Amino acid sequence: MMTAYPESTQTLLDKATALSGAGFDIVYDYNLPISSSVKIAGRKGREQHEIVLRLPSDENNYLIAWQAAFVLHQFQMPDTERANLKPEPAALAPIKKELLDLHPSVPIAQRENFSEHVIGGILTQLRSMPVGMLIDIALHREYEELQATQRQSLINQVVEHIGCLQMTPDMFPRTLLRANQVMNAAQALMVANLFEIPDIFAPYQTVGMEAAATLLLDACMNQIFDETLDRELIDTWGRTLGIDHWYRWA
Fold it and tell me: Which domain covers residue 186, as residue numbers?
């Protein structure tokens, strides 16, 4: 039996299917570290796009719509925009050294993996969050039906990320730490603005991140979603955060 989704969710699934030539499977993975993800058809011999959800909930109507919009965006982009971020080892060497100096107890055999995991996490966040917020903004504008579940989904995400403010420069290099915190702040500011809940941004405002978060959010708000050049947007974020020399496009 087919699951009945809200019209908006089904519309996005249908659009993405029509453009990409592949349908969608919805699966659950209770160990998923994030609320949802998608595996694109055509990669690793996959015939269908696979949306992976963590738990059954009403929020999934938004998460499925979001992932369908992401797939749609991937197939609308020119091939040149599908490049990925590759770390620049020379530029990252001092950050890596500083990180490892802060964690002398990490065994030598694990130091490389540890530093790659931490730094890679920031680059992954930089690669995904600006585009993710563009999708959130576009769905909010265009699919009013989804706004209630979108609101709850985004509040949940902001709450999950708020712990980043507990991290301090004696745990992670200041540039790396601030990049993570300001990106999370930008998402919180977006949610505060879209749904008129300023309190959700208050923890970041208290520590003086409003100006930096506004710069990142403005870069997203000024984009037209269907005409987005991901690389340009991500590079804007990278420059604003002072980490654009940490990576190259490949």
Answer: 82-245
